[in-house]
Amino acid sequence: MLKYYRSKDIIDPWYNDFFINHIESVEKIDDYTIVITSKVAKSDDELLYMMSLPSNGVQPRPVHYFASVKDENNDGMDDNFVRKYNFKTEPTTGPYYVDKVKKGKSITFKHVGDEWWGYNNRYYKNRYNVDKIRIKVIRDQDIAKKHFEKGDLDSFILAQPELWHEKSNTKAYQNGYIHKLWGYNEAVQGAGGLWMNTAKPLLDDLNIRKGITYATDYDGLIKNVLRGDYLRKPHGLGTGHGGFDSPTRIPPTFEPEKAITYFEKAGFSKVGADGIRINDEGQRLSFAVTYSRPARTPRLAYLKEQAKQAGLELTLNLIDGSSAFKYILEKKHELAYLTMGGGKIPAYWEYLHSVNAKSQTNNHTNYRSPEMDKKIAAYISEFDTKKKQSISHDIQKMVSDAYVIVPGYMAPFTREAYWRWMQFPSPVMTKDTDFLFSNGGYLTLGTFWINSNLKKETKTAMKKGESFDPVVIIDDSYKP
User: Fold this and answer.
1) Does the pLDDT value for residue 439 go beyond 60?
2) Judging by beta carbons within 10 Å of its beta carbon (0-12, 13-18, 19+), is residue 176 exposed, middle or buried?
């Protein structure tokens, strides 16, 4: 595992840094015990969240599987690792293994069987119940919805307001064949919103970034496009980190007049015939926003129209799926409409350290600051939790003052539709339940199961034209 995550050949700077600079060693004591030694002193919370390796998506790696054919840098991994292993499936310690991959179409997981070692552990009891999980790639959401309502898919995400409020009331729902659930959680909300690439022309100007911030109407977007279902993130670096989140964080509001003041300070004092501001060289105040899903277009269109009030043009740069993230990683974007995941303890090095102001990193703003580098170093090395939280507050203020991320919105809930044969425990939600089925599946809690008798009953009722009572579950136990 150490060889794997320290190798440059896997092309993963975050794991390279974490395993080289944070972990000294991983040693086996006996068949049931390992020792993980940290390079720097860490509090109990940090040891729990950062050193508990499986919780970070890290798992033991089978050394016999990764044969090094070409290893010129002598790190124990093949120099052509990504090309050689990207679509191969390695042996696993988990409850499911990858059975089939149809590129661009589907990926199928199969259960390793009832003899899986994890069932001897109380934590895994009654989880990972289904024998097979197939995740299908259907690029058009409307087509995917039709597949679901025909019974070709067992569950479907209804996160978008129009799906929940308007497009999930067909006969299949009314007849009780398909159920709906809206469940709130207290899951960590990662960094995100509108990221500004400071390496691009004009975006290295603080006044321009301030202007863009006050010309971006996220609050209006939530109210008018998202039906008020979502909430505003208090900060671009996310929330849900307890004492690490500054209690004084307030997201910037939409103030076009204030934005104009900053744009004029940056030299954009004239307004063209189309209402977009220009400078003395005739350069238009225009930036492209890169995003990855067509369903987000109405949201970006709203921000685009509102930004015109400040003389700012936002052009929409839709790049499908993972290609968009690759485009952003390569730092080709100007503005990126993007939300990242996050952990219980906020991470700053990957997003803000100068060493990551380059391609293939999560420093999506290309932000560089010697002062920030020192703060991050102090944050990483600080043992005392209260002092570490105080440094975290300082870092968040510095990011706010740098105006490199416009805080976006967050959805502290999951909304899903599912056929009535899909079952789950009661109560439905825990604080950390991100999804019930589709996006989480066995990869998270994996507590659902399929009732084959209900499936047969439902299919028979559909053929006979019989119905059941409609079911809509609202679990607001963890509603903010």
Assistant:
1) no
2) middle
